[in-house]
Automatic annotation (TrEMBL):
It comes from the Eukaryota. Coiled coil: none annotated. Signal peptide: none annotated. Residues 194-203 have a biased composition (Basic and acidic residues). This is PRELI/MSF1 domain-containing protein. GO terms for cellular component: mitochondrial intermembrane space.
Amino acid sequence: MVRFYEAKTTFDFTWEQVAQGFWQRYPNPESTHVLSEDTTYRQIRDGKLYTKRLLTKTNKIPKWGERFISTKTVKILEESIVDPKNKTLTTYTRNLGMQSIMSVAEKVVYKSCDENPDKTIAIRTATIDSHVFGFARTIQSFGLERFKKNCTKTVRGFNYVLHSMFPQQHKHIETIPHSAAVIQRSNKEKLKDAAKKASDLAKSKTSFPKVESI
């Protein structure tokens, strides 16, 4: 039986920043397993950017899996569609090698958050399958758990890149001690009083004397 996975992640960055940072995700401290990335196709159609990339990643194999898998690297095909008009970035990834042993197909949609346009929502769905007779369920369960851990690392790594590219500008607010605040407020009130007195004095000097009616 195929295993399914779904998760939602919120990035504290605008969609434009996430879409820009997507192409610079590697390297980062969480991506030591990514050995290479190559763009094999890129085209703009109907205002959308279509891209295909080939990633090479290391493939750590548990002891029980060594009887099925001999290679320690795996090729990943990543296809993406950037739609700047609707502010969506959709990615599709799947492994090209060892599909008969375990196949992982993932879809991620990055879109602007409806409640807060300064944030981006990533909706991730994936299927994990295996066709190894007698071991399919074991391999699927292993693949699902490893996929979950990798997703956590992926989000941490992407956040690291985004924070590096777009340092958050926090407004610096100085905390004024209570006594200083009182003095500051008192000084402001004195200035207001002085200004009011000066204004009243100026008005009295420029006003015309009242003329009684005859």
